[in-house]
């Protein structure tokens, strides 16, 4: 006699619903942008009603914020005593993550493009997150200066602006149509540029 699978807890059901709604929202935004996406469309794509989307996220703005946050995470290699190697490892990891062309990364860059075009909902969301990312990148530069792998006269704040431009701009090219054909060469040139700019 087959065992009956254990019943999921309310917390597990809630997490599953939120994940399905978020996946549906990312897929719709990755294909069409956010401007025409409604809570009703997201609910239908996820197999639920508009009410479920509203219940879990409260508003379209909070749903878009969750999409932005889901798309900005990627695996960063650990620091092992060489700040420049850590920085180039981050550049490579970021670009490989984008090149996977998952709905989350495509949706993130689609929303970033809309924010750059001064979308009143998205611009403040990205302003806050970009500021945080620039601060993180500046800290990595400071770390490299401290361990001697990054040149001592590097300006961490200015370097962070340059690095973010490299990551986002190259990322947009990686999801463009037609797609970039030689990803290893793009990553090689990006990391080479970072090493050339900041080598101590």
Characterize the structure shown.
With 200 residues, the chain is mainly α. The protein has 2 domains: 10-70, Arc Repressor Mutant, subunit A (Orthogonal Bundle), CATH 1.10.10; 72-198, Orthogonal Bundle (Tetracycline Repressor, domain 2), CATH 1.10.357. The protein is 72% helix and 0% strand. The protein has helices at residues 10-32, 39-46, 50-57, 60-71, 83-99, 103-116, 122-147, 156-174, 183-198. The longest helix is centred in the C-terminal third of the chain and has 26 residues, at 122-147. The N and C termini lie far apart (68 Å). The mean pLDDT is 90.
What's the Cα radius of gyration? 20 Å
CATH superfamily of the largest domain: Tetracycline Repressor, domain 2
Structural class: mainly alpha
The CATH architecture of the largest domain can be named as Orthogonal Bundle
State the low-pLDDT regions, or none: none
How is the main sheet built? none
Helix content estimate: over 70%
User: Mean pLDDT across all residues, rounded?
Assistant: 90
């Amino acid at each position: 006699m087959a065992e009956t699978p254990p019943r999921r807890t309310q917390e597990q059901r809630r997490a599953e619903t939120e994940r399905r709604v978020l996946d549906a929202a990312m897929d719709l935004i990755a294909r069409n942008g956010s401007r025409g996406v409604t809570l009703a469309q997201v609910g239908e794509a996820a197999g639920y009603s508009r009410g479920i989307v509203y219940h879990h996220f409260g508003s379209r703005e909070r749903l878009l914020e969750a999409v932005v946050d889901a798309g900005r995470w990627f695996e960063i290699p650990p620091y092992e005593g060489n700040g420049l190697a850590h920085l180039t490892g981050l550049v490579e990891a970021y670009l490989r993550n984008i090149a996977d062309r998952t709905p989350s990364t495509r949706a993130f860059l689609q929303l970033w493009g809309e924010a750059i075009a001064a979308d009143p909902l998205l611009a403040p969301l990205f302003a806050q997150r970009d500021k945080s990312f620039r601060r993180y990148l500046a800290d990595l530069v400071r770390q490299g200066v401290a361990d001697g792998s990054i040149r001592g006269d590097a300006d961490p704040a200015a370097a962070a602006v340059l690095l973010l431009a490299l990551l986002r701009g190259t990322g947009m090219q990686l999801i463009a149509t037609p797609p970039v054909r030689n990803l290893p060469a793009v990553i090689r040139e990006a990391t080479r540029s970072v090493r050339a700019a900041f080598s101590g």
